[in-house]
Amino acid sequence: MAGFGAPRWRFLWRCAASPLALRRPGRALLWSRGYGQDAGSEANKKKSDVTKPCFMDELVQSLLSKMTGLDLQKVFRPIKQELKPPTYKLMTEKQLAEATRKAIEEAKELLKMPPVLSEREPIDDVLAEDRILEGTETIKYVFTDTTYSTPHRERFIVVREPSGVLRKASWEERDRMIQVYFPREGRKLVPPPIFKDENLKTVFREDRHEEVLNLCIAQFEPDSADYIRVHHQTYEDIDKHAKYDLLRSTRHFGGMVWYLVNRKKTDGLLIDMIQRNLIDDATCLINLYHMLHPDCQSAKEVKEEDAYGVDLIKVFMKTESKKVGYIELALQAYQEALASSAAL
Amino acid sequence: MNACPPSPPRHVLWGRLFLNPFAVSSRNRGFPEEVLARVIMVHLAHLLMKNYHGGHVAIRLALGGCANRPFFRIVAAHNKRARDGKYLEQVGCYDPLPNSHNEKLVGLNIERIKHWIGCGAHVTKPVEKLLGLSGFFPLHPMTITNAERLRKRRALKAETASEEETPERHFLQHFNRENSNQIPLFFQ
């Protein structure tokens, strides 16, 4: 932590105390309106079925958060905000430990993973058909129920078409109306052009994946098509160029791992982990893989043999991975490095 | 009944209320104190209690916005208040100009509308029509009547337009290409 040679007690408070509102746009009301309920109900259903673990299961979340890591330097790195001169505090060792503990708690809060939901079903529900009104209007009316206490998911938003049909509003109309009457910080009425495919490519070339994902979380609902599309494109790009470290110690890492494990594209990530000497993370990854795909060969072999650590990786490598050669090389390099450091 | 001092005009009374309500003016000096107290209180009381007699709460549209840009707030206000004056509560809004998606936006605080209607508020016709279109109320009869009238008018227009065309067509049908030289010149 004090790798610069700066006095320890000065370092910690140099870049802390950024208001949460500035750091994460739209964080204030972020998950307070109903996602916990959706995900929780999904989890309950899945637990009773015992077929497939859900993203929000405690075990899955613990594995993912272990892999995410907790690099305080990265979590509390300076972000673009109002220029203030840094504050320095003189502390005892005990106070520093206390401050570190608090910082870790705050970091855990910041690292809470956004929910992973399946795409929402389109709404097409007709409430009334009054064909008498056909031809009287050329413009549709959108009626929004602005009662403050109803959750946004249960709000009534109806559209009276010029043909006289009274229907429920589609998801895009709903999002737009809720943003008009209950504007959320960081969310625009019209999605910014950064989310178009061509612009995403430019952003990826500049290694700004985390920024795009933060903007995406602020702008879209977690089960909207755009949110899922942007996230999948980001994860694909990271996997293609092996830029896993960009998301490590951010709240998007868990989602990325979940995506890769579900599609069995874990080889690149595994190689990266071994190269950075994160064998525990690698074992977590393989355990998660076995949880999600209990029928695969390596899972069965591991159940029989009960392997740990490097052996587990070797079993997995032989059975499931496609880039066997690369993983073998990485493992060899790691073991040589281990041997040489042990010798020293 | 004891003699009472005459009541001064209303604007004078308001001024005295803010300066010194208890100053005894020259006109009041001759009278006993109890009489004075009763009269002053009676004169001021009807100014302080400015309730409307026989009024009711109305849910109606209050116009706002700028020149060539109207914007309505749906508002619960006393019946006798000015259209854009002090209201009890804003209960919705209505934008009569369509936006870029060709929609007219109407926001309705249904919970509070229900509350005011439960308190006995009257709803004006435009708001009733809007609520009817939204589905919260049944469709207003005038909406249906106007729709039917418009339909009839359009049907009538279409009929008369087609009638004007058809006599000409009937006449010229008898002449086809072969004998077109026989069509009188003023019909060609």
Summarize the structure in words.
Chain A: InterPro entries: Ribosomal_mS22. Chain A: It holds the Pfam family MRP-S22. Chain A: One of its GO terms (molecular function) is structural constituent of ribosome. Chain B: Belongs to the bacterial ribosomal protein bS16 family. The complex is a heterodimer of chains A (344) and B (188). By secondary structure, chain A is mostly helical. Helices cover 51% and strands 5% of the residues of chain A. Chain A has a domain at 126-169. Chain A has helices spanning 8-11, 20-23, 35-49, 58-68, 72-75, 93-110, 171-181, 197-205, 209-219, 225-241, 253-262, 267-275, 279-292, 297-305, 309-319, 324-343, and strands spanning 126-129, 140-145, 157-160, 165-168. A four-stranded antiparallel beta sheet of chain A has the order 1-4-3-2, covered by helices on one side. Chain B has 188 residues and is of the alpha+beta class. Chain B has helices at 10-19, 33-48, 110-118, 125-134, 141-173, and strands spanning 57-66, 69-78, 89-94, 103-108, 122-123. In chain B, a hairpin with a 2-residue loop joins β1 and β2 (69-78). The model of chain B has no long low-confidence stretch (mean pLDDT 82). The chains are: A mainly alpha (344), B alpha+beta (188). The interface between A and B is medium-sized, with 28 and 28 residues. β2 of chain A pairs parallel with β4 of chain B.
